[in-house]
Structures are given as structure tokens and as C-alpha cells.
Design a protein that fits this description.
Layout lengths: L10 H7 L4 E7 L5 E5 L3 E3 L6 E6 L4 H10 L2 E6 L6 E12 L5 H16 L6 H7 L7 E13 L15
Antiparallel strand pairs: 1-2, 1-5, 3-4, 4-7, 5-6, 6-7
Helix pairs in contact: 3-4
């Protein structure tokens, strides 16, 4: 058996995408019609092969239909205060229920993002409300990244991720 390929993202990327970043998830149906939704958290397994994105099933209904149909997904993580942005793409994504401890991950994300946006003038009540969902509405979108890019505006936008970027 050949060795498993090295993860596309390093520990610094994991810390970034699990942090106080805006998360947008995109998919498309077989005709190429896109669907986009804001996510409410991310978790990466310790050995980094599996990325889990948390979504409201109600808000993401169209996107989840696309993922269930073809498994392709693209996720953008962007830090509002710096515009640092990372994009991951994957195939074979699955929609799953929450595992133990994942609801706490969603709640921690919401509070971290509230703290990120407050110095930029966004009302914490508004942000908290925007990201609040009933636990029963949350689903997990799990995938192994097959591509990873820096998307920070500037000359390196679109470049494949490298350790420490």
C-alpha cells in the first residue's frame, strides 16, 4: 500500500480556518447552477485529512442537495480584520449529523466571530443573531481537501497553499 499523501494544510492553516473567520461554502448542481451559504464553524481532525464545516440545514438546503448529488465543495475562510483568505476544495463530501462535542465547536465559533467583528463596528447582538441556529438544524459537511489555495487579495492570490502562508 502506498503511503498516504501529506495533508494540504499545515497546523497554522488549521488554526486559521478554525478561528474567527468568515466561512462561505459553495457547491453546484449538475447543470453548474451554484449554491452558496455562510457556515457557522469548522473543525479539522488532528492529523488534518478531514475538514468538517457546520451549516444550518434550513439555510443550506440547496447547497446540501448539490453536495449529496455530486460531492464537490469549495470553502473560503476569510479574516475580516486582515482579509487573509484561504480556499479549500474537495470531492466526495458527505452530509452528516453532529458528533459529540461539535455543537460546542459551533457555539465557540459564533462567540469568536462576534469578538472579531466588534472592533470593526458590527453590533455583537446582530452578529450573534445572524449566526444563531437551533442545534437540531445544524449539519456537518465533511470532506478531505483535494486542493488548497491562498486567496488573500494581492499578487499571491490563487497560489497553492504552502506551509506558513
Amino acid at each position: 500500500m502506498p503511503p498516504a499523501p501529506a495533508p494540504l494544510i499545515d497546523a497554522s492553516h488549521v488554526a486559521f480556518i478554525q478561528g474567527a473567520v468568515g466561512i462561505s461554502v459553495a457547491a453546484c448542481d449538475r447543470s453548474g447552477k451554484p449554491a452558496l451559504v455562510r457556515a457557522i464553524g469548522c473543525h479539522v481532525t488532528e492529523d488534518r485529512p478531514l475538514v468538517t464545516i457546520y451549516l444550518s440545514a434550513i439555510q443550506a438546503a440547496q447547497l446540501l442537495g448539490c453536495v449529496r448529488d455530486n460531492g464537490a465543495v469549495a470553502v473560503v475562510f476569510s479574516e475580516p480584520s486582515t482579509h487573509r483568505t484561504v480556499q479549500l476544495k474537495g470531492a466526495g463530501a458527505i452530509v452528516d449529523g453532529l458528533l459529540e462535542g461539535e455543537w460546542e465547536c459551533v457555539q465557540a465559533y459564533r462567540e469568536a466571530f462576534v469578538r472579531e467583528l466588534a472592533p470593526l463596528g458590527f453590533d455583537p447582538v446582530m452578529v450573534r443573531t445572524l449566526l444563531s441556529h437551533r442545534q437540531a438544524d445544524i449539519v456537518a459537511l465533511r470532506f478531505v481537501p483535494s486542493e488548497a489555495y491562498s486567496q488573500t487579495p494581492g499578487p499571491q492570490a490563487g497560489a497553492p497553499l504552502k506551509a506558513g502562508t
